[in-house]
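Lab manual, section 2.4: Encoding a predicted structure.

Procedure: take the sequence of the chain (212 residues), apply the prediction step described in section 2.3, and record the output as structure tokens. A sample record is shown.
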Amino acid sequence: MPISLKAQNVVPLTVLVLLQVYLVLCLAQGALDLGGIISSMESASLMLLLNVVIVWLSYLVPADIKNGMVFFRVRNALPGHRFLSLMKSDPRIDVARIHAIHDLSSLVSDESAQNSFWYQVFYKPNTARMEIKSAHKSYLLYRDACAVSLILCGVYCLVSWLSPAYLGGSDSLYGLVFIVFALGFALSANNTGKRMVTTAIALSTAKAGTDE
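Recorded output:
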């Protein structure tokens, strides 16, 4: 049975989260302890526990909200909703050929219809392609990492406020490290998500050209 893309991302997601946590704690304590990171990653039982907890955290935020966070939109957040404009900026795509094959005039003012069209016509026929899988996997990884980072920021700030002694009296501003990481993950997810959309279109266009 094939492993889902989210399941394949469990370990790298845990590593990204663990890196942030150790960085914040090291800043709070005034000492960088790389040995702590390495020893934690070498502990199979601890990594398993962290995997479970981090996956749980990633599911606390609904997918629609996570998509909105990385694309900075409230409605119709996915890049498939705007594939007509995105494909114009990708040199791999023959825009004229796309318009010659498909009547897209009805989609210009309907973002929801754009996403449905992109999914059925461009994405679904290419889901097994490695280029699509790679971009999709990266998008899910960075999107979930962004969500978990924001959750950890909230938890850290709450703990530092309620029980500062537990964190060595550190300033809650160290929690901004999570915000910086979250922003970086959001930008990465934004780029890989758009790349997945345009790659699916490029693959479909190339296939249409060979079938002629």
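Check your result against the sample. The chain has one domain: 61-211.
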